[in-house]
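GNAT family acetyltransferase, Streptococcus massiliensis. C-alpha coordinates?
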Amino acid sequence: MYNSMKIEVNENTFIRNVLPSDWEDIVRIEEENFSPEEAASPAALRQRLSLIADTFLVVEVENQLAGYVVGPAVANRHLTDDLFEQVVRNPPTGGYIAIQSLSISPAYKGQGLGTLLLAALKEIAKEQNRAGVSLTCHDYLISYYEMNGFNDEGESDSSHGGATWYDMVWENSDYKGADDAD
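C-alpha coordinates:
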Protein backbone atom coordinates (compact mmCIF):
# COMPACT_ATOMS: atom_id res chain seq x y z
CA MET A 1 0.00 0.00 0.00
CA TYR A 2 1.45 3.35 -1.03
CA ASN A 3 0.39 6.50 0.76
CA SER A 4 0.09 9.81 -1.01
CA MET A 5 1.54 12.20 1.57
CA LYS A 6 3.34 15.09 -0.12
CA ILE A 7 4.85 18.12 1.60
CA GLU A 8 5.97 21.11 -0.45
CA VAL A 9 9.14 22.51 1.13
CA ASN A 10 9.50 25.14 -1.59
CA GLU A 11 8.61 25.33 -5.28
CA ASN A 12 11.44 22.91 -6.20
CA THR A 13 11.58 20.59 -3.17
CA PHE A 14 9.01 18.03 -2.02
CA ILE A 15 8.90 15.29 0.61
CA ARG A 16 6.58 12.40 -0.15
CA ASN A 17 6.02 8.72 0.49
CA VAL A 18 8.09 6.32 -1.58
CA LEU A 19 6.75 4.89 -4.85
CA PRO A 20 7.78 1.67 -6.61
CA SER A 21 9.36 3.76 -9.39
CA ASP A 22 11.87 5.20 -6.84
CA TRP A 23 13.58 1.86 -6.23
CA GLU A 24 16.57 2.23 -8.61
CA ASP A 25 17.41 5.71 -7.30
CA ILE A 26 17.13 4.49 -3.71
CA VAL A 27 19.51 1.60 -4.39
CA ARG A 28 22.00 4.01 -6.00
CA ILE A 29 21.86 6.45 -3.07
CA GLU A 30 22.19 3.61 -0.52
CA GLU A 31 25.31 2.32 -2.29
CA GLU A 32 26.79 5.84 -2.55
CA ASN A 33 26.55 6.39 1.20
CA PHE A 34 27.14 3.09 2.97
CA SER A 35 29.98 0.59 2.95
CA PRO A 36 29.17 -2.79 1.36
CA GLU A 37 28.95 -4.26 4.89
CA GLU A 38 26.45 -1.62 6.02
CA ALA A 39 24.40 -1.04 2.86
CA ALA A 40 21.01 -2.65 2.52
CA SER A 41 20.76 -5.06 -0.39
CA PRO A 42 18.56 -4.14 -3.35
CA ALA A 43 16.21 -6.96 -2.29
CA ALA A 44 15.96 -5.59 1.27
CA LEU A 45 15.22 -2.10 -0.06
CA ARG A 46 12.51 -3.50 -2.35
CA GLN A 47 10.97 -5.33 0.63
CA ARG A 48 10.94 -2.13 2.70
CA LEU A 49 9.43 -0.23 -0.22
CA SER A 50 6.59 -2.72 -0.54
CA LEU A 51 5.90 -3.37 3.17
CA ILE A 52 6.51 -0.09 5.02
CA ALA A 53 5.80 2.67 2.51
CA ASP A 54 3.96 4.61 5.24
CA THR A 55 7.28 5.15 7.07
CA PHE A 56 9.48 5.43 3.95
CA LEU A 57 9.90 9.02 2.77
CA VAL A 58 11.84 10.51 -0.12
CA VAL A 59 12.87 14.06 -0.88
CA GLU A 60 12.80 15.37 -4.46
CA VAL A 61 14.70 18.43 -5.63
CA GLU A 62 13.82 19.70 -9.10
CA ASN A 63 12.16 16.34 -9.90
CA GLN A 64 15.27 14.35 -8.89
CA LEU A 65 15.25 11.94 -5.96
CA ALA A 66 17.83 13.45 -3.60
CA GLY A 67 17.48 11.26 -0.51
CA TYR A 68 15.30 9.15 1.71
CA VAL A 69 14.58 7.95 5.23
CA VAL A 70 13.09 4.56 6.06
CA GLY A 71 12.33 2.44 9.08
CA PRO A 72 9.67 0.11 10.43
CA ALA A 73 7.50 0.71 13.47
CA VAL A 74 8.62 -1.74 16.15
CA ALA A 75 7.92 -2.40 19.83
CA ASN A 76 11.57 -2.05 20.91
CA ARG A 77 12.94 1.35 21.90
CA HIS A 78 16.27 0.64 20.20
CA LEU A 79 17.07 -0.70 16.75
CA THR A 80 18.04 -4.37 16.63
CA ASP A 81 20.20 -6.01 13.97
CA ASP A 82 17.41 -8.32 12.80
CA LEU A 83 15.58 -5.26 11.42
CA PHE A 84 18.26 -4.94 8.75
CA GLU A 85 17.50 -8.45 7.50
CA GLN A 86 13.72 -8.64 7.41
CA VAL A 87 10.80 -6.29 7.85
CA VAL A 88 7.09 -6.83 8.42
CA ARG A 89 4.20 -4.42 7.91
CA ASN A 90 3.88 -1.65 10.46
CA PRO A 91 1.29 -1.99 13.22
CA PRO A 92 -1.25 0.86 13.01
CA THR A 93 -0.06 2.62 16.21
CA GLY A 94 2.41 2.39 19.07
CA GLY A 95 6.07 1.51 19.30
CA TYR A 96 8.96 3.41 17.78
CA ILE A 97 9.82 4.11 14.17
CA ALA A 98 13.31 2.57 13.95
CA ILE A 99 15.27 4.32 11.20
CA GLN A 100 17.26 1.84 9.12
CA SER A 101 18.62 4.42 6.66
CA LEU A 102 18.77 8.18 6.30
CA SER A 103 20.63 8.75 3.08
CA ILE A 104 21.19 11.84 0.94
CA SER A 105 22.80 11.72 -2.49
CA PRO A 106 26.27 13.32 -2.38
CA ALA A 107 25.18 15.94 -4.92
CA TYR A 108 22.58 17.24 -2.43
CA LYS A 109 24.43 17.02 0.90
CA GLY A 110 24.74 20.14 3.03
CA GLN A 111 21.33 21.52 2.01
CA GLY A 112 19.39 20.46 5.12
CA LEU A 113 17.50 17.68 3.35
CA GLY A 114 18.27 15.10 6.05
CA THR A 115 16.89 17.44 8.70
CA LEU A 116 13.74 17.94 6.61
CA LEU A 117 13.27 14.17 6.26
CA LEU A 118 13.73 13.66 10.01
CA ALA A 119 11.16 16.38 10.75
CA ALA A 120 8.67 14.78 8.35
CA LEU A 121 9.22 11.35 9.90
CA LYS A 122 8.62 12.82 13.38
CA GLU A 123 5.30 14.19 12.12
CA ILE A 124 4.38 10.72 10.88
CA ALA A 125 5.29 9.34 14.33
CA LYS A 126 2.85 11.83 15.85
CA GLU A 127 0.10 11.07 13.31
CA GLN A 128 0.51 7.31 13.86
CA ASN A 129 0.69 7.68 17.67
CA ARG A 130 4.22 6.28 17.98
CA ALA A 131 6.25 6.66 21.19
CA GLY A 132 9.09 8.15 19.17
CA VAL A 133 11.76 7.61 16.56
CA SER A 134 14.98 5.69 17.17
CA LEU A 135 18.13 4.99 15.21
CA THR A 136 21.73 3.93 15.51
CA CYS A 137 24.59 6.06 14.22
CA HIS A 138 28.38 6.30 14.17
CA ASP A 139 29.99 8.48 16.86
CA TYR A 140 30.75 11.31 14.42
CA LEU A 141 26.99 11.72 13.72
CA ILE A 142 25.83 11.97 17.35
CA SER A 143 25.91 15.79 17.36
CA TYR A 144 23.95 15.91 14.08
CA TYR A 145 21.14 13.83 15.54
CA GLU A 146 21.24 15.75 18.84
CA MET A 147 20.80 18.93 16.78
CA ASN A 148 17.67 17.26 15.36
CA GLY A 149 16.17 16.55 18.78
CA PHE A 150 17.47 13.03 19.42
CA ASN A 151 19.01 11.96 22.73
CA ASP A 152 22.21 9.91 22.89
CA GLU A 153 21.45 6.74 24.87
CA GLY A 154 24.96 5.33 24.64
CA GLU A 155 26.67 2.55 22.78
CA SER A 156 24.26 0.23 21.01
CA ASP A 157 24.05 -3.55 21.19
CA SER A 158 23.97 -3.47 17.38
CA SER A 159 27.02 -4.77 15.55
CA HIS A 160 25.57 -4.27 12.06
CA GLY A 161 28.31 -4.30 9.44
CA GLY A 162 30.91 -4.97 12.14
CA ALA A 163 30.76 -1.34 13.31
CA THR A 164 30.27 0.40 16.66
CA TRP A 165 26.91 2.19 16.83
CA TYR A 166 25.20 4.57 19.23
CA ASP A 167 21.50 4.51 20.14
CA MET A 168 19.66 7.77 19.52
CA VAL A 169 16.00 8.35 20.43
CA TRP A 170 13.53 11.16 19.82
CA GLU A 171 10.56 11.03 22.20
CA ASN A 172 7.10 11.99 20.92
CA SER A 173 5.73 14.33 23.60
CA ASP A 174 2.24 13.87 22.08
CA TYR A 175 2.29 10.06 22.48
CA LYS A 176 -0.99 8.89 24.02
CA GLY A 177 0.12 5.37 24.89
CA ALA A 178 -0.76 2.23 22.99
CA ASP A 179 -4.01 1.76 24.92
CA ASP A 180 -5.13 5.38 24.59
CA ALA A 181 -4.93 5.71 20.81
CA ASP A 182 -8.07 6.87 19.03
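The two ends are 22 Å apart (CA to CA).
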